[in-house]
TrEMBL record:
It comes from Marinithermofilum abyssi. Zn(2+) binds at C53, C86, C89. GO terms for biological process: nucleobase-containing small molecule metabolic process; pyrimidine-containing compound metabolic process. This enzyme scavenges exogenous and endogenous cytidine and 2'-deoxycytidine for UMP synthesis. GO terms for cellular component: cytosol. Substrate binds at N42, V43, E44, N45, A46, S47, Y48. Keywords: Hydrolase, Metal-binding, Zinc. Its EC number is 3.5.4.5. Residues 1-128 form the CMP/dCMP-type deaminase domain. The active site is at E55 (proton donor). This is Cytidine deaminase. Belongs to the cytidine and deoxycytidylate deaminase family.
Length: 138
């Protein structure tokens, strides 16, 4: 699966976005290590804060389908610069994806930036922080 095909899958997913409030469609495509592509779109709600972004939709779909090892993600929106994932999605990527996993950020004009999960959220709070032994502390 090349980068262009993953971007195309994200573009298709974007068409399915449920965005009656923002009208801002976003698509994501997550490549698993066994070559499957899982698509996600943003799904909004009348209670605005319940909105699920495209990136988290793809990740949660994958986990609930039993897919847990990921190789890359592409994200697309109609933005001037390549789309920038929100903080919540960056935190969920840190939880579920390898730190060096490529994240391909694009827009409809075809601008592309490639980054990584760890570059998107340096210094993230993660499972290692929870693993610290606190039993002897008062
Ligand atoms: O990377 C992003 C940025 C925004 N959104 C969604 C959330 C909301 O539905 C709309 C406007 O913020 O775009 C995503 O899905 N992914
Ligand atoms: Zn988000």
């Amino acid at each position: 699966m090349d980068r262009e095909a993953l971007i195309e899958a994200a573009k298709q997913a974007r068409e399915k976005a449920y965005v009656p409030y923002s009208k801002f469609q976003v698509g994501a495509a997550l490549l698993t290590t066994n070559g499957k592509v899982i698509q996600g779109c943003n799904v909004e709600n009348a209670s605005y804060g319940l909105t699920n972004c495209a990136e988290r939709t793809a990740l949660f779909k994958a986990i609930s389908d039993g897919e847990s090892t990921f190789a890359a993600m592409a994200v697309i929106g109609d933005t001037e610069e390549p789309i920038s994932p929100c903080g919540a999605c960056r935190q969920v990527m840190v939880e579920l994806c390898p730190p060096d996993m490529p994240v391909i950020l694009t827009n409809l004009k075809g601008d592309v930036t490639e980054t990584t999960v760890k570059a998107l959220l340096p210094g993230a709070f993660d499972k290692e922080d929870l693993a610290y032994d606190r039993t002897d502390q008062t």
